[in-house]
Amino acid sequence: MNKTYKKQSAWYLFWKRLTDIVLSTIALICFSPIFLVVWIMTLFGENKGPLFFKQTRIGKNGRPFKIYKFRSMIVNADEILHANPELYQKYVDNNYKLEPEEDPRVTKLGHWLRKTSIDEIPQFINILRGEMSIIGPRPVVKEELVEYGDRVDKFLSVKPGAMGLWQASGRSNIGYPERCDMELSYVDQASYWFDIKIMFKNIISIFKSTGAY
Q1: Are 64 and 56 in contact (CB under 8 A)?
Q2: What is d(CA 166, CA 86) in angstroms, rounded to the nearest whole number?
């Protein structure tokens, strides 16, 4: 394994964590009406089911955790995906995603939640809990770790983020292996001011719906 990577300073990690706690607390308070509205919408029709979609992702140092999102798919979507070999292979070949028009699991509400990135709001819960940071490489499912090859330790050496350099640069429009290089370059360049720059680039990308699906 390639273990040559920049070690983040204690002061940087302290201010990064403090910022995460403050901003995620403010965000959860400000976005609380959205939680209520989305919950009401999940009580009816094809949207009926749990408010949250929880999926196991791999965090810092290889520690698994459950990521929170507003559910944009029908109930048991993961089981449906893995039960269909052809659909699952298409999912893997398309960088572990499916095009909206090819994904039978996504609801109409879900398409809108994804397009606006509102489905990502519950990740502030993960941030507050310390499983994620506001800025960092996007957390991946276990199967995706193979894409990082002998650089996987470097990728897992930092806390994953709700916003990252890959998202700010094009999101789903950028696939593997370019995504690997982009996420790993963050590990090399990580600093408080670089995080702020990435955050504002992500906000612009969200408003433009760049690569969102």
Answers
A1: yes
A2: 28
Which tokens belong to 162?
Answer: 């709700």
Mean pLDDT by groups of 10 residues along the chain of 213 residues: 70 97 98 96 89 95 97 85 87 80 84 91 98 96 93 96 88 83 93 94 79 50
Backbone angles phi, psi at 73, to 5 degrees: -120, 170
Tally helices (H) and strands (E) across the chain.
Answer: 10, 4
CA–CA distance, 94 with 88 (Å, rounded to integer): 10
Q: Which residues contact 55 (CB under 8 A, 6 or more apart)?
A: 66, 67, 69, 78, 141
Report which of 148, 152, 154 is spatially closest to residue 177, judged by C-alpha positions. 148
